[in-house]
Amino acid sequence: MKNTIKAIALTFVAGILTCNAQTLTNFGTTDFLIETDITNVTNSQTATTATITSGEAGGIFAGTLTTPFSLSSTDSIVLVLSFTGTNRNTPFDLEFFNSSFDKVATYQGYTSAATSASTPTNLGLTLTTSAFSDAPVGAIQMTLNGEGNSINYTLHSVSVVPEPSTYALMALGGLGLFLAARRRKVQA
């Protein structure tokens, strides 16, 4: 019985250690294909990132995914971004579409949290869609809404971060395991 409790406890600890952000898409992989007929900002793509240059008052950057991902209205979405130039707190919309190009959800964010060009920053996004569709996401469009400036935004990935309630439930389960093991030890 002790071995069973130890195994459950180890599984719980491993669950906590692996309960990190899950990458939904990396803008630099071949899974993300830049749609040049929709994108109206200068862009480039490497094996790990995609870079957009906004030298005008806004612009659109869009791409399709060869492997769609699921998105829930309860998910906390994070855009990982770095930049070169002067970051002027550009607001942006990040829209998700299904494979038929029907809008699934719209999130809003600001580049102000990105403080270092050399360090990718996690930008938390706010869901602004009133009607959310649970269809798999097959395309992404980013619309920059800032004033004109010369700045390159490098997009690394879009990730989903577990809600704090997920950690709370895991902690409660761990506490339960601890109390069960302690009770068995006292009774033995």
Please name the defining characteristics of this protein.
188 residues, alpha+beta, Jelly Rolls, 2 domains, 6-stranded antiparallel beta sheet, 12 strands, elongated
- Overall SS class: alpha+beta
Number of strands: 12
Spatial extent as radius of gyration: 21 Å
The proportion of residues in beta strands is 35-45%
Structure summarized in a few sentences:
The protein is 22% helix and 41% strand.
Q: How would you describe this protein?
A:
The protein is of the alpha+beta class and 188 residues long. It has two domains: 1-20 and 163-188; 22-161, Sandwich (Jelly Rolls). The protein has helices at 2-18, 164-187; strands spanning 22-26, 32-34, 42-45, 50-53, 59-69, 76-85, 91-97, 103-110, 121-124, 126-127, 137-144, 151-161. Strands 1, 3, 4, 6, 9 and 12 form a six-stranded antiparallel β-sheet that branches. It has a six-stranded antiparallel β-sheet with strand order 2-5-11-7-8-10, with no helix packed on it. Strand 3 (42-45) and strand 4 form a beta hairpin. Helix 1 (2-18) runs antiparallel to helix 2. The relative contact order is 0.25. The model is unreliable at 13-18 (pLDDT under 50).
